[in-house]
Amino acid sequence: MTDLLTVQNLRIAFPSRHGPVEVVRGVSFAMGKERLGIVGESGSGKSLTGRAILGLTPPPGKATAEKLEFDGIDLREATRSQWHDIRGERISMVMQDPKFSLNPVMTIGRQLMETYRTHRRSTRAEAHERGLEMLNAVQIRDPDRVMNAYPHELSGGMGQRAMIAMMLVTEPELLIADEPTSALDVTVQIEVLRILDRLVSDRGMGLIFISHDLRLVSSFCDRVLVMYAGQVVEEVKATDLANASHPYTKGLFNCLPRIEGGQRPLPILERDADWAL
To answer: How much of the chain is in helix, strand and coil states, percent to nearest 5?
Structure first.
């Protein structure tokens, strides 16, 4: 499998009164057209890792890496025009909450069409048709109504689907999904995951699935990176998560609720200060 994305020794630091503080420390991985999960608790650095791949580290933070390469392009040295061609066209990112990612004063259709026409030469009619196609692809039943709707007029699940449609309208080669189902109920979660799975399989895309839900990642992804305190503590096949070797991964897995067994008291993750070193 040819590597689509290579990340080597990625570090992200933010200034403080006592000097720079590293919040992502030496993250390295390579991936092809597969489903790679990045899992960890809040503050572990997984979302910042995803943003750094797209050159979107929030200021005053600074991201550095020994290697950050996408399909042969050195992203560390990418020009403004290269980023214009990459962001949204070749790499897209679904943010956590569509209510904060979608423009509240623009209709869904206008935002879909703007995304498509930014990267493709097309007429308004062609962009409108493409928008309807993508809303159908994410299983929205009444795409004409949704095209004319504003974000606040959609439910959380429909807003999330519209956001996924917008990020996939240009048929990117890599999709970074940052907790795309965290605000959804269980039944809608399953529907969104099925949509992502089908789109990734049909289009031959790479997917980075960022989540704090270990069980969800283990059932959906091919490989899993486990992050703690800004660094990758373990990389494991999703099917082998139950046999993980690092005590943090074991602790996370053992804390998952189980219907059978009636375990009492419920297990608590015991942390070791050495994990953060």
So the answer is: 40, 25, 35
Q: What are phi and psi of 28, to 5 degrees?
A: -140, 135
- Distance, in Å, from the CA atom of 211 to the CA atom of 83, rounded to the nearest integer, reads 26
Query: For the segment 176-228, what is each residue's pLDDT rounded down to a tens digit?
Result: 999 887 766 777 777 778 878 887 888 788 999 998 888 888 888 999 999 99
Q: Which ranges of the chain does DSSP label H, i.e. alpha helix?
A: 46-53, 80-86, 98-101, 108-119, 124-137, 143-147, 156-168, 186-203, 214-220, 247-254
Report yes or no: 179 and 210 within 8 Å, Cβ to Cβ.
yes
Chain centre distance of CA 113:
22
The per-residue pLDDT for range 110-144, each reduced to its tens digit, is 999 999 998 888 899 999 999 999 898 888 889 99
Beta carbons of 116 and 130 less than 8 angstroms apart: yes
List Cβ neighbours of 241 (8 Å cut-off, separation of 6 or more): 214, 218, 224, 249, 253
Please answer whether residues 229 and 40 qualify as being in contact, where contact means their C-beta atoms are separated by less than 8 angstroms. Answer: no
Write down the pTM of the prediction: 0.89
